[in-house]
Amino acid sequence: MHVRRLKAGVYISLLLLLAGCWIPWAHANTLLSASPNQASYSLAPYSEFWHATDKSITLNSLLSHPPNFKHSHHEENLNFGYTRHDVWLRTQVRNDSPETQRWMVQFEYPFLDYVTLYTLRQQSIEAQRSGSAVPVEQRALAHRQAVFSLELAAHERVTLYTHVAASGSKMLNYKLITPEAFYTQNDRHNFWLATYFGMLLAMGLYNLLLFFGLKERVFLHYSLFVGGFALAILTFNGIGTLMFWSFLGDNTARLVALGFTFASTMATLFAQSFLNTKVYCPRWHNVLSTFRSYCWLTVIATLLLPIPSALHLMDVTGFMAALLLLLCGSYCSLQRVPSARLFVFAWSLFLLGAGVFALRNLSLLPANFITLHGIQIGSALEMLLLSFALASRFNKLKRQKERTQSAMLAALKKQEALLERKVAARTIALEHLANHDVLTSLLNRHGLMRSAEGALQRNRQHGHRLALLMLDLDRFKPINDNYGHEAGDFVLQQIAKRIIHLARTNDHCARFGGDEFIIIMENIGTGDTLTPILARIDQAIRSPINLPGGEQVSVSVSIGVSTCHGADDATLESLLSEADSNMYAVKSSQAAAYYRYGSASS
After folding, report:
1. What are this entry's molecular-function GO terms (predicted)?
2. Which residues contact 389 (CB under 8 A, 6 or more apart)?
3. Span 513-522, pLDDT tens digits
4. Is the pTM of this model over 0.70?
5. What is the C-alpha to C-alpha distance for residues 515 and 503, in angstroms, rounded to an integer?
């Protein structure tokens, strides 16, 4: 009897095991057959979703007691807005190729806290993590979006389970894309993002400098508005967490809420100072002051409230601020307040982008390119237009300043002599800058051409002998690769100092390229040999260099020499060509000697 019960238990266990292996395939309604002939596939039509009321549910419990997944059908069905529940996605992918294929699974929405992708194969389960709240070193791929690699053997079929936990809006559009298409798309997106954030940085810093120069608060308010907005957008797009503050974890979403609410606060201050509401529209000035007090409370609330509530408050506050400022600007425009019309037009664009952003987060608008990037497009246009308006104000202040200066012209004439001396000194400085390398202070190419022209002319007049030395550093590239370009620049500066120290007073030293240097030596006697000079240069350059970080590095040098006499019809180009050929001959002989030495040692 006990044996029969034991056998029955074994059979039941085997059936459960087989059922567990079969469940992932049984519940999927569709199968994506991925062909290498197509660069990408949207996974929404092939996916199913399920809202987990219990955040502690794991993949094992999901497989043991499979819930009722719903088919998504369209990408809009994966935009869940501010749902409190975690979401599980499931889809099947089959490699429709007789060869192994590599794919990437990419989530388009970057503001997802935790995304875990489980790849169920017949013999194994692979788990990968990513998300804006996950430290960069723990992500499946160091990217601003949740991206995972997927390798499929020939005709292999796998089931993908994805667990998404996020405090913000859950827009879960994701796709299967080839690595080539992914990196091409990534380069294009990074270009536009870099352009966008470069514009924000330039406008913020420019207006901040104007504030320090003109002491006009409108420029400070605009800079703070741009700064808060840029901080929020930088975090929202995933670039901030990728490059700067991935250690924030769950507080990444709080930083977005803080940035947007702070930007709303600064926007009201900017509108008051830009439109001069205290003079032209006192009632609106009081309304904006009251609303700004509310905005300061929301800034504090975003630090204290739970993150989902802080994000909801962010959306409401941002939308209210944009709408209120639009109404204020419209009223000022009717009252013919200076620059009010441009303000209204600019703020209308921003309101449109902010409204699309908020309504998309609330799942009231479908998810697409416009709704995903609407706030960036609107803010870019709005800030450009406001920058033009601020530039107009700057010109107005400049004209006022010029009129004031014209009244003091008589007193300023006494300073003409001093000013002329300063101009002369500035001219000398500019001439030095035009002929010298910024990094090493040696001659640059332009300065080398001018110096060589004079040296060759003197050489022909007096019949002297002239030598050109071309120095090419060896083993320099590994310093850049291992220690960074700042260390490489430091090494170049040290080499330049050693070359200047060895050169004679009338020698001309130049940096010819990245790690190439030129020395032109005039008035060399016919009996003089350059061998001791070359030996001293080689010994000096080979001496170890202590980097600022404490590391010690060294480089070697290959030197090519060309000479000419006064009677020779030599030019800088001919000397450079000859020295370059000789330098490469030296480099080749050194390489051959190194090879022979290595072979003998082995």
Report:
1. catalytic activity
2. 274, 339, 342, 343, 346
3. 889 999 999 9
4. no
5. 18
Contact assessment for residue 253 and residue 133, using Cβ atoms and an 8 Å cutoff: yes
Determine contact, residues 288/271, Cβ cutoff 8 Å: yes
How far is 535 from 462, CA to CA, in rounded Å? 28
Q: Could you tell me the pLDDT band of residue 577, with boundaries at 50, 70 and 90?
A: very high
Give the number of other CB atoms < 10 A from CB of residue 105: 26
- Which H or E element spans position 453? helix 445-462
For the chain, helix, strand, coil in percent to 5 are 60, 15, 25
Cα 325 to Cα 37, 58, 361, distances in angstroms: 51, 47, 22
Residue with tokens 């292999």: 156
The residues, ordered by sequence, that sit 6+ positions from 559 with a Cβ below 8 Å of its Cβ are 469, 470, 471, 472, 534, 537, 538, 583, 586
Sheet holding 465-474, edge to edge: 508-511, 516-524, 465-474, 556-565
How far, in Å, CA of 139 to CA of 13, rounded? Answer: 36
Determine the Cα–Cα distance for residues 227 and 249; give it in Å rounded to an integer: 22
Residue 250 backbone dihedrals phi, psi, to 5 degrees: -65, -25
* Mutual angle of helices 307-334 and 251-275, in 10-degree steps: 10
CA–CA dist 105, 520 (Å, integer):
59
Token pair listed for 585: 């001959």
Contact present, 110 and 237 (Cβ < 8 Å): yes
**CA–CA distance, 161 with 90 (Å, rounded to integer):** 5
Q: What is the pLDDT of residues 263-320, one digit of tens each?
A: 999 999 988 988 889 988 999 999 999 999 999 999 999 999 999 999 999 988 988 8
User: Residue 468, SS3?
Assistant: strand
Q: Are 107 and 141 in contact (CB under 8 A)?
A: no
CB neighbours of residue 241 within 10 Å? 27
Q: Cα(50)–Cα(61) distance, rounded to whole angstroms?
A: 14
345 contacts: CB under 8 Å, gap ≥ 6: 385
Tokens encoding 143: 């990217």
* Cα–Cα distance, 179 to 520 (Å, whole number): 51
518: helix, coil or strand? strand
